[in-house]
Design brief:
This protein is mainly beta. The chain is 13% helix and 36% strand. β2 (21-28) and β3 form a beta hairpin. The protein is globular.
């Protein structure tokens, strides 16, 4: 998993009825974009996290390129 500051982390719900969560990556603490990451959620809470296999990095460059087309 590789991420950069400004990317988003999507964490899928692990059980039925649990919603997906999305957070902005505000700091990358690992080498070469590797975890752990400092995350900021929509409600302003910040967490230090090493995401598991149920998480996906959404790169901001890819999203911006898709909006420009």
């Amino acid at each position: 998993m590789e991420a950069h500051t400004g990317d988003r982390l999507l964490m899928h719900g692990r059980t039925v009825g649990q919603h997906d969560r999305v957070a902005e990556i505000i700091e990358v603490l690992g080498d070469g974009g590797a975890p752990p990451y400092r995350l900021r959620f929509d409600d302003g809470r910040e967490h230090l996290m090493s995401p598991g296999p149920d998480s996906v990095v959404q790169h901001m460059e890819a999203q911006e390129d898709g909006q420009r087309r």
